[in-house]
């Protein structure tokens, strides 16, 4: 395998001399028509195929995107106003775009910018560090420099002056030092560059960029507009898969037409990730892969079309299932047991469950506390569970150390699951934790008195304008 | 609107205090010297800590301290969050309740006091005091972080700023802060003292209160003079004849807790527990301190308990009270106690039934 080939595969596009130069410059102004769906693992034989699947399927118009039309309008509106505003009001506008992986954030922007004739400059982290570079400036100063360079529009742009800057790769120095990022933001905000778009992927692990780099204060301070994308809706996903099927049909020598069932299966198992869905479609419709997948899957679908089964069918390509909060709560509140002779164990992947919610242990435990009573059938069980919850809450108050918090979450989850021996299985509405905020009274005499003494004050002033405890029950 | 009796007849200077007269004399001597240390006044609520502090301030700066105004100050936290806190201040002192702002109390303690302490006091004509006084209330609710910050502030700015701290219980205050202050205990007045004050106050209002009623009120308030005066005034509003056979009004939240205790002993079930939880939430949202809820609840429950299970119940109450003081999600611990009690009670009842 030659070096050239590897390169051409990695960049998705035809390798030319200019491309490699621009990579060395680290920050290249890319054409809007860049690859969006990144290829992950493609069998070696494919490299000989002249047909670049992932380049072909890049959405070309707004109708081909998998983003909800309302969201798209919102984004388009923002792009329009800020690029126009920039002409006379030299203030840097920011937008933070978040959403789960494969929800079409980047491609939405690429397509919209293309249709609105807006130039794009994207920051790309420098990849190869050679010795010259080590002597050069740090990544952060390069980042700032990139913004200075990006001020100027391409000379070839006829429209003139319409440009946005996209930051998707954040220099990793910022991950270690979030304060530095806000300093840089401060600089950018005053140097009046083109509108800046930050793209962040939602993730549940500790490296959540949005949480780290864009806390609420930062959003308010720099008046950053925040838009969040949801996972792709199944209907849109299906539509898009069908569109791609049309493209595949044009190459009957390479692909066979995927069945309707297979598309359903992919829609179900990809968890709303368009990138994942495309990969699955690509692999499963390759002619050489037929015996591996299609037969097995088609057998299963005819009998049952449940999600659990579908994930078995194309196991090798599905995404990890992401547990929602309510799903997770349901698992904890309705523990399933597997009997094994005299003993039993819980039928649940605890490790994954706790891991999923380890970002905000106190939120999950307060949800648990608010709802656990309804799922218990025996007072003695409740006693044990409440004792454990009380202990866990005690640990949660020690908020300085994150490991202790995760430990407390473990205790609460396991405690509630194990102690629930007489489970009541009926549908209950999940309630959110109650917030106890002391009502702020105006600065009059009543509020100066202690809450326990206010009753007398109301007796003296004969006012009825206060909360009265109803003692008749 | 007319002032409450509590405010109207609050002693204005140290010589007119009704009880702890010896202590008042000592305080007067202390203040008469040009220099005095940071003070920490502790004692149960309604014992007159705040009254004494105001007397001391008056002694120091003259009647100017009574011209109070409230002000809202904005402090910025390190994470650029803006928080507001209400202060009550005169030209000579500033009163802050740092625990109003929750976990941001450390910033308030550091920034606000620093600002006050750094501005030199421009001496007025009638006194030579060259320091300002910062009065911090409910210091026992401060986080440990804030208390440590307070310790440094106390050392650094002791030249032009004196702190007066006011706490109900000394135990949550870290020893480092305690040792930097002169501790002054303001104990609750005794029953005869309270009843005497009630009678004197009524006389000033041109009313006569029967000594027996005054004593009856004094007995119910548990040494809380403020509450005693409020009750007395509430009685007067209802009917001017303050005779012996008058009923002493009980606050509704107290009755509410009592009823809740009845509910717990009446039936032990999960449905019942959910009702109890609603009640506890109602009490907490109306500002009744969780410690008091637990205490009243325990008293209510113990009345219904058999002697055999009392030790166990009290032990559990102590455990959950301890956990409660450590943290800030009180409802979980309160409910854990209630469930525990329900189980103990139910078990005891069934064991009694077996005996027959």
Automatic annotation (TrEMBL), chain A:
Q: Kindly list any coiled-coil regions of this protein.
A: none
According to its UniProt record, where is this protein located?
A: Nucleus
GO biological process, alphabetically ordered: DNA damage response
> What PANTHER family would the database entry show?
CELL CYCLE CHECKPOINT PROTEIN RAD17
Q: Which Gene3D superfamilies match?
A: P-loop containing nucleotide triphosphate hydrolases (3.40.50.300)
Q: Which UniProt keywords apply?
A: ATP-binding, Cell cycle, DNA damage, Nucleotide-binding, Nucleus
Q: Cellular component GO terms, alphabetically?
A: nucleus
Kindly list the GO molecular function terms attached to this UniProt entry.
ATP binding
Organism the protein comes from: Hypothenemus hampei (Coffee berry borer)
In Swiss-Prot or TrEMBL terms, this protein is called Cell cycle checkpoint protein RAD17
InterPro entries for this protein: Checkpoint_prot_Rad17_Rad24, P-loop_NTPase
Protein family according to the UniProt entry = Belongs to the rad17/RAD24 family.
Pfam families named in the record: Rad17
This protein's superkingdom?
A: Eukaryota
UniProtKB/TrEMBL annotation, chain B:
Q: Where in the cell is it found?
A: Nucleus
CDD domains assigned to the protein according to its UniProt record, in alphabetical order: AAA
Q: Which domain of life is it from?
A: Eukaryota
Gene Ontology biological process terms, A to Z:
DNA repair; DNA strand elongation involved in DNA replication
Give the SUPFAM superfamilies listed for this entry. Answer: P-loop containing nucleoside triphosphate hydrolases (SSF52540), post-AAA+ oligomerization domain-like (SSF48019)
| Keywords recorded for this protein, A-Z | DNA replication, Nucleus
Q: Cite a single GO MF annotation.
A: ATP-dependent activity, acting on DNA
The protein's job, in short, is:
Subunit of the replication factor C (RFC) complex which acts during elongation of primed DNA templates by DNA polymerases delta and epsilon, and is necessary for ATP-dependent loading of proliferating cell nuclear antigen (PCNA) onto primed DNA.
Q: How does it assemble?
A: Subunit of the RFC complex, an heteropentameric complex consisting of a large subunit RFC1 and four small subunits RFC2, RFC3, RFC4 and RFC5; the RFC complex interacts with PCNA. Forms an heterotetrameric complex with RFC2, RFC4 and RFC5; this complex has ATPase activity but is not stimulated by PCNA. The heterotetramer of subunits RFC2, RFC3, RFC4 and RFC5 interacts with RAD17. Interacts with CNTD1; this interaction facilitates crossover formation.
Q: Which family is this sequence assigned to?
A: Belongs to the activator 1 small subunits family.
Q: Which PANTHER family match?
A: REPLICATION FACTOR C / DNA POLYMERASE III GAMMA-TAU SUBUNIT, REPLICATION FACTOR C SUBUNIT 3
Q: Could you tell me what this protein is called?
A: Replication factor C subunit 3
């Amino acid at each position: 395998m030659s070096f050239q080939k590897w390169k051409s595969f990695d960049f998705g596009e035809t390798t030319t001399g200019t491309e490699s130069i621009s990579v060395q410059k680290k920050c290249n102004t890319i054409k809007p028509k860049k690859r969006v769906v990144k290829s992950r693992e493609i069998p070696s034989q494919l490299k000989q195929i002249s047909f670049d699947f992932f380049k072909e399927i890049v959405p070309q118009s707004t109708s081909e995107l998998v983003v909800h039309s309302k969201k798209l309008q919102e984004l388009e509106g923002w792009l329009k106003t800020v690029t126009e505003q920039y002409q006379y009001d030299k203030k840097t506008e920011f937008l933070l775009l978040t959403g789960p992986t494969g929800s079409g954030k980047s491609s939405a922007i690429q397509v919209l910018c293309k249709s609105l004739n807006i130039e794009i400059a994207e920051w790309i982290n420098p990849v190869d560090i050679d010795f010259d570079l080590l002597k050069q400036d740090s990544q952060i100063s390069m980042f700032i420099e990139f913004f200075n360079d990006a001020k100027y529009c391409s000379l070839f742009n006829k429209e003139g002056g319409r440009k946005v800057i996209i930051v998707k790769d954040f220099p990793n120095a910022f991950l270690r030092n979030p304060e530095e990022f806000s300093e840089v933001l401060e600089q950018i905000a005053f140097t009046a560059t083109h509108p800046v778009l930050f793209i962040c992927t939602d993730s549940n692990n500790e490296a959540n960029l949005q949480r780290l780099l864009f806390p609420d204060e930062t959003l308010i301070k720099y008046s950053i507009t925040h838009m969040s994308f949801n996972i792709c809706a199944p209907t849109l996903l299906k539509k898009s898969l069908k569109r791609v099927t049309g493209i595949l049909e044009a190459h009957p020598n390479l692909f066979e037409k995927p069945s309707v069932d297979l598309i359903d299966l992919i829609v179900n198992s990809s968890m709303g990730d368009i990138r994942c869905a495309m990969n699955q479609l690509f692999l499963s419709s390759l002619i050489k892969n037929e015996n591996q997948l299609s037969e097995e899957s088609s057998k299963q679908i005819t009998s049952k079309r449940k999600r659990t089964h579908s994930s078995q069918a194309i196991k090798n390509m599905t995404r990890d299932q992401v547990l929602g909060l309510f799903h997770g709560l349901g698992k904890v509140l309705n523990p399933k047991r597997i009997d094994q002779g005299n003993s039993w164990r819980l039928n649940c992947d605890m490790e994954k469950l706790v891991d999923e919610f380890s970002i905000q242990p106190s939120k999950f435990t307060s949800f648990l506390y608010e709802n656990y009573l309804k799922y218990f059938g025996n007072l003695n069980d409740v006693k044990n569970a409440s004792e454990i919850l009380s202990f866990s809450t005690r640990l949660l108050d020690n908020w300085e150390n994150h490991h202790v918090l995760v430990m407390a979450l473990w205790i609460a989850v396991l405690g509630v699951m194990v102690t629930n021996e007489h489970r009541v299985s009926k549908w209950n509405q999940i309630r959110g934790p109650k917030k106890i905020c002391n009502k702020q009274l105006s600065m009059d005499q009543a509020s100066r008195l202690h809450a326990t003494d206010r009753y007398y004050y109301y007796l003296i002033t004969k006012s009825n304008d206060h909360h009265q405890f109803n003692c008749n029950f | 609107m007319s002032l409450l009796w509590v405010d109207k007849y609050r002693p204005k200077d140290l010589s007119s205090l009704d009880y702890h007269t010896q202590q008042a004399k000592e305080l007067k001597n202390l203040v008469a010297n040009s220099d005095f240390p940071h003070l920490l006044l502790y004692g149960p609520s309604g014992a007159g800590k705040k009254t004494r502090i105001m007397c001391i301030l008056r002694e120091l700066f003259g009647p100017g301290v009574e011209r109070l105004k409230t002000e809202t100050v904005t402090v910025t936290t390190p994470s650029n969050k803006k928080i507001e806190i209400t202060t009550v201040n005169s030209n000579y002192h500033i009163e802050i309740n740092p625990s109003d702002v929750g976990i941001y109390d450390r910033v308030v303690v550091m920034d606000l006091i620093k600002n006050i302490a750094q501005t030199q006091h421009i001496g007025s004509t009638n006194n030579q005091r060259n320091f300002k006084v910062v009065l911090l209330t409910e210091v026992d609710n401060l986080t440990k972080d804030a208390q440590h910050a307070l310790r440094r502030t106390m050392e650094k700015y002791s030249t032009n700023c004196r702190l007066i701290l006011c706490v109900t219980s000394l135990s949550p205050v870290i020893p480092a802060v305690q040792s930097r202050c002169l501790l002054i205990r303001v104990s609750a007045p005794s029953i005869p003292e309270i009843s005497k004050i009630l009678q004197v106050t009524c006389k000033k209002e041109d009313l006569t209160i029967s000594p027996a009623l005054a004593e009856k009120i004094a007995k119910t308030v548990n040494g809380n003079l403020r509450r005693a005066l409020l009750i007395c005034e509430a009685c007067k509003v209802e009917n001017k004849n303050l005779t012996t056979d008058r009923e002493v009004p009980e606050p509704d939240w107290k009755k509410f807790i009592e009823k809740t205790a009845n509910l717990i002993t009446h039936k032990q079930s999960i449905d019942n527990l959910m009702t109890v939880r609603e009640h506890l939430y109602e009490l907490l949202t109306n500002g009744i301190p969780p410690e008091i809820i637990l205490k009243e609840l325990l008293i209510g429950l113990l009345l219904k308990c058999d002697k055999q299970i009392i030790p166990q119940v009290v032990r559990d109450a102590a455990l959950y009270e301890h956990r409660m003081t450590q943290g800030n999600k009180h409802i979980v611990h309160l409910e854990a106690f209630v469930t525990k009690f329900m189980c103990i009670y139910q078990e005891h009842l069934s064991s009694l039934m077996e005996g027959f």
